[in-house]
Amino acid sequence: MSTDLIAGLERQLDALADQSLTRRRRTADTACAPHQVVDGRSMLAFCSNDYLGLASHPRVIAALREGAELYGAGSGASHLVSGHSRAHALLEERLAAFEAPHLVDAKALYFCTGYMANLAVLTALGSDPDAMIFSEALNHASLIDGARLARAGVTVYPHGDVATLEAKLAASNATTKIVVTDSVFSMDGDLAPLPELLALCERHGAWLVVDDAHGFGVLGAHGRGALEHFKLRSPNLVYVGTLGKAAGVGGAFIAAHAAVIELMIQRARPYIYTTAAPPALAHALLASLDIIEGEEGAQRRTQLNGLIAQLDGELRLQRWQRPLSHTAIQPIVIGANEEALRVAGRLHAQGLWVPAIRPPTVAVGTARLRVTLCAAHTEHDVARLATTLNKLETEQLERTAP
Prior knowledge:
- The chain has 402 residues and is an alpha/beta fold.
- It contains 15 helices and 13 strands.
- The chain has two domains: 26-55 and 295-400, Aspartate Aminotransferase, domain 1 (Alpha-Beta Complex); 58-293, 3-Layer(aba) Sandwich (Aspartate Aminotransferase, domain 2).
- The protein starts with a helix and ends with a helix.
């Protein structure tokens, strides 16, 4: 019987391989940075979400070390038992103040991961079976899973389609309406129309949950994210920010009206029933926030925007498609899974680490390279990437020419 069970799993794995959908891990031997040693080999990486280059910043590393000395290595329990340390409390106060210009009576709650934060916010707000969640078609898997786990009904609206969402909201008799969207879409790099979405939510008495995983620290004059970028403020906003990307450490937070945060503490199972993150991480994140909202953070955002413009100007693609993106996420849509893997392999052979993204992460027929830029990249790094991509596409065109 056990042999049959294993054989069933092996058939599933073989089916993935036949479709060029097998995933593999690479092992980084050095700190997260543009230039890394990976599986024993020097690589130039364009694949991390460390957009400001803070993951190996000396001030953040020193703060992490100091946090471990102050609070130890672990928290020991969930936040509601004994795991809520002074470091967590200080971080939540700081995050609430950081996002306060865009929220009313703002409070914040820190989570171990962005995935858990998204599960928490949707299952808590959507705990009523008479509620309805209106979910963007290209939302991250964590939002999709959060909606599935909620007791609320779920309806999906097409990507960026404000008119369809408005019709759905107007037709709904739900007691609680929750619109949920990514701010920066992780595979395309485009922005959600947040001002229009917020106007709809205010008109129809709905919550607007914004997952700003790829905007926090990067967008806005002070790095406060998508809400600052669009100059939004409303009591209807529930903001989810990720702290393992531009902030360079780990975890995530929900910032919203104090009543929303209190509901999370009382009802959000992913918060109540998990061990709190190590306090040292929260302590290190205070240093990250100092950098993000200070002069150095502004300089790093300027550097990043310059690199985005450079890549846009130096890529000369004819067949591969580039969805319009003004963010650090720069996708190059190749199409077939096999070709995307082949191009990623050619890049890897030349010391460039760029991942091939395939279904189900993206739609069938839209396999792509997901290039991510970082403020710690140099102009030379970006030029090397652009030159190599241009050459590889030209070679592909020559091979397939009649």
